[in-house]
Design a protein that fits this description.
Number of domains: 2
Helix content: 55-70%
Distance between the termini: 12 Å
Strand order of the largest sheet: 1-2-3
Structural class: mainly alpha
Order of helices and strands: HHHHHHHHHHEEEHH
């Protein structure tokens, strides 16, 4: 699970975002249910589907704001007697959404609140795919340009938007020459020709091999231009799960 950091947005920002959504949903909830399956009129079916999709999109952002500002940020989840981590594991039971959907709504709401004025200025409305709004934070993190992020989010299809922000993942490869020259030999790691790390042969063979393995992974990552991270895990199964989370993040899921 990705830990969501609380933002230092103020109540005025929350109020503006909430008022926008309330205005959007005013008079938009269907008072009649069109029985689409028994209709033979294309226009009636098209109008019904459009209303349902519009209703669904507006409900999504309304739900996202309520989840983020009330349940999460105001910590009302504590009324359940659970920590946030525990509560997050029961979102299907309590909120009717799985953890992925919960994470998307939290991310989308936070992006909507933080960048509300820019979104409105650029013409955001509920025809923008919810998935694009949910990927706003990731797109901004990768591109580093909030205006371009919002413009692409609003003007691109969901797939084009995803392709746009994922293209920035390739940029570090163009900076490979900025990384130090690293040579990994048995028991010795050289950086720019200097013996940076030497593992004593006085260690037991199993200890030395284990340390060599860890250091090789770390410095191989640095050599490739990646950012190595050391995360304690209980076993190989948990480690594989972290790799899956990493791959899903890189794929924009």
């Amino acid at each position: 699970m990705n830990v969501i950091k609380k933002d230092d947005y103020n109540e005025k920002a929350v109020e503006k975002a909430r008022n926008t959504v309330i205005e959007l949903t005013k008079n938009s909830i269907p008072t009649k249910t069109v029985d689409l399956f028994f209709s033979t009129d294309l226009k009636e079916i098209e109008d019904g589907i459009r209303r349902l999709n519009d209703y669904s999109s507006k409900c999504w952002i309304l739900s996202a704001l309520a989840l983020y500002t009330l349940v999460y940020d105001k910590e009302l989840y504590k009324q359940s007697g659970l920590t946030w981590t525990e509560y997050y594991k029961h979102t299907k039971e309590k909120l009717g959404m799985d953890k992925r959907q919960c994470s998307e709504q939290l991310s989308g709401a936070r992006f909507f609140i933080k960048h509300h004025d820019l979104l409105m200025e650029k013409g955001w409305d509920t025809t923008v795919p919810n998935q694009s709004l949910a990927r706003g934070e990731l797109a901004y993190e990768l591109s580093g340009d909030i205006e371009k992020t919002v413009e692409h989010m609003i003007n691109d299809t969901q797939l084009d938007f995803k392709n746009w922000y994922q293209s920035f993942k390739l940029l570090p490869e163009t900076k490979a020459d900025q990384h130090p020259e690293i040579v990994i030999e048995k028991s010795v790691i050289k950086i720019n020709g200097i013996d940076a790390v030497t593992i004593s042969d006085k260690l037991a063979d199993d200890q030395r091999m284990r340390i060599e393995g860890f250091l090789e992974q770390i410095f191989t990552a640095i050599k490739q231009g990646d950012f190595p991270a050391i995360i304690p895990v209980s076993d190989e199964k948990e480690a594989r799960h972290l790799f899956t989370l990493r791959d899903n993040y890189r794929n924009g899921r």
